[in-house]
Automatic annotation (TrEMBL):
Phylogenetic placement of the source organism: Eukaryota, Metazoa, Ecdysozoa, Arthropoda, Hexapoda
Single annotated GO MF: beta-glucosidase activity
GO biological process: carbohydrate metabolic process
SUPFAM superfamilies: (Trans)glycosidases
Family matches, as Gene3D superfamilies: Glycosidases
Subunit: Homodimer.
Taxonomic source organism: Polypedilum vanderplanki (Sleeping chironomid midge)
Keyword DNA repair recorded: no
Family: Belongs to the glycosyl hydrolase 1 family.
Keyword tags: Glycoprotein, Glycosidase, Hydrolase, Signal
InterPro entries: GH, GH_1_N_CS, Glyco_hydro_1
Xref: Pfam families: Glyco_hydro_1 (PF00232)
Protein name per Swiss-Prot or TrEMBL: Uncharacterized protein
Alphabetical list of PROSITE patterns matching this protein: GLYCOSYL_HYDROL_F1_2 (PS00653)
Amino acid sequence: SYTCENSTTIEIPEDFIFSASTSAYQIEGAWNEDGKSPSVWDTYTHNHPEKIADHSNGDIAADSYHFYKKDVEALKSIGFKQYRFSISWPRVIINGTKINQKGIDYYNNLINELISNGIQPAVTMYHWDIPQYLQDLGGFANPIISQYFEFYANVLFTNFGDRVKIWMTFNEPLTNCIGEYGEGRSGASVRAPGVGEYLCGHHVLISHANVYHLYKEKFYKKQKGEIGISLNLRYNYPKDEVITKDFVMRSLDLVNGWFLNPIFSKNGGYPEELVKIFEQKSIEEGIWSRLPIMSEELKKKIKGTADFLGVNYYTSRYVAPITHGENLNKFDYDTGISYSMDKNWYKGITAWAYSVPDGLHDLLIWIREKYENPKIMITENGWTDSGEMNDFDRIKYIKDHLAAVLKAKEENCNIIGYTVWSLIDNFEWSEGYTVHLGIFAVNMSSPEKERIPKRSARFLKDLIANKKFEIC
Ligand code: PNW
């Protein structure tokens, strides 16, 4: 229970932005309407329902394609001034190759509805739903993908850039590259654990940089927007007294640094430690280095290509060196890190959900020190429930994490705002509809798909209105 004897009031700075987040495949439905071509998630869920907890899919989901006005209404009712959503690549570009005007119309309607309600759109270009056609050509394992991605981004800037001023190229490439190419989640036709993840990561970085340069050269002067990227980051703590501080710091460099270092570090390129590991591994394994080589020219091209860093934070971990015989994914094996949890961390209902608010604070300080205090927007943070409307655990989670963010901000981290994942309950990937992360429930069995505020929605409404909250 959360009875609280002496609470503290936390004040929220006047200009701090509050936002809520969703992604296209998880909410839109209309998977084959108005010319939309299939994404890998359509194919995967249709061909392999057994891989999804409740054998469901995103064919209809919250039906935001037809009910986007309900989403905007929900946002407005809470007082959010920003909405982070993603655009479905295969809806806007059929098979990744042909422009679909009806897809463009849909996002124009959504963007206009947001703006006329005083809500600023913040758009993710790619939240894991690559056109199946491009996946069949190798997806992000094929270097040509950067040209297709640039073509797509060009269409987005051309059509929406007059009104969209905040862009995120990618959402969580680490999760996506490991999931697709390492673990075979979502039907990548190229599954190559230990190779595919790194090819994917490499071409994500190149695609991201190309799109950043495209914007700066062709659109920025007129549109004056910002380009960032959303990375899923965690903090690590030593599992026991035997684990050295060096090991912990190195683990952060290896994992968080994979995507942070090339874009946000002073010298660019992959973390030195990561490169070293693969030099060793290729000698041991007698094969070509599995981490693609980043030339000096490419380092230069990728370095500094973000106006802000989007931080998606859910949890942290204890770390220790791997021991013989552990069953690990290839990335954990390559980096040599074994993860565990503290039995005192509050646990949610998915395997990954442990509440570690200190980890968010410590992560933000670590980024400030390591990457010269970049501008940061928290682009995801959220908690699971199993269907209850009085979601007190989520309220506590949000309070604790917001307090951690504001503390880091007071300690001079350049943080401009906080985004909750998610605005509405939605298709939670492999968990289907069995796990809920929305501050609004969605009546999935009703054709009207009503959005119903949970207790946490009302909490956030008060918090945004009063610019303060009470914490224990
Ligand atoms: C994110 N972790 O994934 C995704 O961006 C969302 O699409 C998803 O619905 C949401 O979180 C909830 O799962 C995660 O480090 C990535 O524990 C990493 C972690 C958790 C979630």
